[in-house]
Amino acid sequence: MRSFRDGKLGLLVATTVIEVGIDIPNATVMVVEHAERFGLSQLHQLRGRVGRGSAPGHCLLVNRGTGSAVAAERLRVMEKERDGFKIAEADLRLRGPGEMLGARQSGLADFRFANLARDARLLAEARQEALAWLDKDPELKSKASTGMKQILRHRWGATLQLGLVG
Description:
Blueprint: H1 2-5, E1 29-32, H2 40-47, E2 58-61, H3 69-80, H4 84-95, H5 120-136, H6 146-156
Parallel strand pairs: 1-2
Helix pairs in contact: 3-4
């Protein structure tokens, strides 16, 4: 890495470790093999590793065609988008939000009626209401909180304990 950074090497072959905080301004071209295997966030991060200096950067995403229709859609998003927020929205649409509490990182949301993208404002308001309630009764010990506490225990069970990790 140092030899590449210092210009002693003109070519670097690496794993995705290069994504993690590496800043080499003279890097101008990147080829990502089997790009269909990567998620949108990782592809966006990888693409951001080139073109950091005065010369323009080029990132070539090589699709070996072994991915799914979703993988192909991810690559179409990367082809069209440069805006990280739009890429994140596409990722949410394609993968789903996963669990708010728990270990699942993708999949359909547990909401029965709400949609995270469509109902973001309403969900933000609901969050503010919940936080205001918790400010008044953080352990849900009041009589008014009894029903909510029962629903949370039934719905989330032991998973609620993950909120104490940190």
